[in-house]
Specification:
Elements lengths: L4 E12 L2 E13 L4 E5 L6 H9 L7 E10 L2 E2 L5 H10 L1 E4 L3 H4 L6 H12 L4 H14 L5 H4 L9 H13 L5 E5 L7 H18 L2 E6 L2 H7 L2 E6 L2 E7 H6 L4 H8 L8 H4 L28 H5 L4 E3 L5 E3 L10 H7 L1
Parallel strand pairs: 3-8, 3-9, 6-7, 7-8
Antiparallel strand pairs: 1-2, 1-4, 4-5, 9-10, 10-12, 11-12
Helix pairs in contact: 4-5, 4-7, 5-7, 7-8
The structure holds iron/sulfur cluster and magnesium ion (MG).
Iron/sulfur cluster binds next to loops.
GO molecular function, one term: ATP binding
Membrane topology: Peripheral membrane protein
Keywords: ATP-binding, Cell membrane, Membrane, Nucleotide-binding, Transport
Length: 335
């Protein structure tokens, strides 16, 4: 059976005064019904651009999908008209962004914002719309919906605003929700509550979620599978349990080391990965992680590694896993 979402060999470029940035360089992954896929990586790795492409929101110009295709629920998203994309976003794909304040209209009552899309696509009376808005507020755990529907965004706290944004995203009963760093702007306690809510809704509504994040903690909390991106490509993918138990790519090892521990001693344990990602005006022909990788071999800079498969759909693109490569222990011993 077909995947709900299939991204295939996606390439996205952006024209700038400095030249053309190759932001996404051949990305392939899928999302099944009822699962949460995390797309994880540092800022600039292409994860948000990938999300924009799925939503049909690449600004053209300066952006352009130069290759690949995206299929959603049997339809080809790449190649849709603006109008078709708009209707897809209003009904079948919901969106949640980092900053709830920019997603909300400060001059409009929260209740009307929640059902705006619903009213556009359904023929409902004012009273039915209001009922629907209250039902959505209840669904996302906002108390006192009778009063809340009449209020404006500034009367809500940050966490409550993000709940409103989630209510808007879900009002039309979408099959897929794209969430781009939805908890990054919130404090830690609220973050955990929003992730709990998303997980709960995901199970209850059989939703598929694409969670864009730089935070492996978020991945562990909510995702079934993950795609690790670096410099516009996928370096590792697999079930979250497998990636955490047995990460295969040196970049993923770096991300793991930088993961804060929950027991309170996190500060000393935070080890950021040294160095910076390559310039995507002139992407390297070999492994883009080579300049930062302590295991880099000569071949790494010459040629892009193929993905190796470790079973259970766990894959990583790294020369260390080529059968001809020296064993990792030898490399470590050689310093
Ligand atoms: Fe490091 Fe080479 Fe693997 Fe890239 S391919 S991550 S440079 S060992
Ligand atoms: Mg981003």
């Amino acid at each position: 059976t077909e995947h709900l979402l299939q991204v295939e060999n996606l390439r996205v470029h952006f024209k700038t005064y400095g030249g053309e940035v190759q932001a996404v360089r051949g990305v392939t992954f899928h999302v099944d019904r009822g699962e949460t896929l995390a797309v994880v990586g540092e800022s600039g790795c292409g994860k948000s651009v990938t999300a924009q492409a799925i939503m049909g929101l690449i600004p053209n110009p300066p952006g352009r999908i130069v290759d690949g295709q995206i299929r959603f629920d049997g339809k080809k998203i790449t190649g849709m008209t603006k109008k078709e994309l708009l209707s897809l976003r209003g009904s079948e794909i919901g969106m949640i962004f980092q900053d709830p304040m920019t997603a909300l209209n400060p001059t409009m009552k929260v209740g009307s914002q929640i059902v705006e899309g619903f009213v556009r696509t359904h023929n409902v009376s004012k009273e039915e719309a209001r009922k629907k808005a209250m039902e959505m507020l209840r669904l996302v755990g906002i108390p006192d919906p009778e009063k809340r529907v009449e209020q404006y965004p500034h009367e809500f706290s940050g966490g409550m605003r993000q709940r409103v944004v989630i209510a808007i995203a879900l009002a039309n009963n979408p099959k897929l929700v794209i969430a781009d760093e939805p908890t990054t702007a919130l404090d830690v306690t609220i973050q955990a509550q929003i992730l709990d809510l998303l997980r709960e809704l995901q199970e209850k509504q059989q939703l598929s979620i694409v969670m864009i994040t730089h935070d492996l903690g978020v991945v562990a909390e909510i995702a079934h599978r993950a795609v690790v991106m670096y410099a516009g490509i996928v370096v590792e993918t697999g079930k979250v349990d497998d990636i955490f138990a047995n990460p295969k790519h040196p970049y993923t090892w770096g991300l793991m080391r930088s993961l804060p521990r929950i027991d309170g001693v996190e500060k000393e344990r935070l080890v950021p990965i040294e160095g910076t990602p390559p310039d995507l005006f002139h992407p390297p022909k070999g492994c883009p992680f080579a300049p930062r990788c302590q295991f880099a071999m000569e071949i790494c800079e010459q040629q892009m590694p193929d993905a190796s498969d470790f079973g259970n759909s766990h894959q990583a693109a790294c020369w260390l896993h080529d059968s001809r490569a020296p064993k990792l222990e030898e490399l470590v011993a050689a310093g």
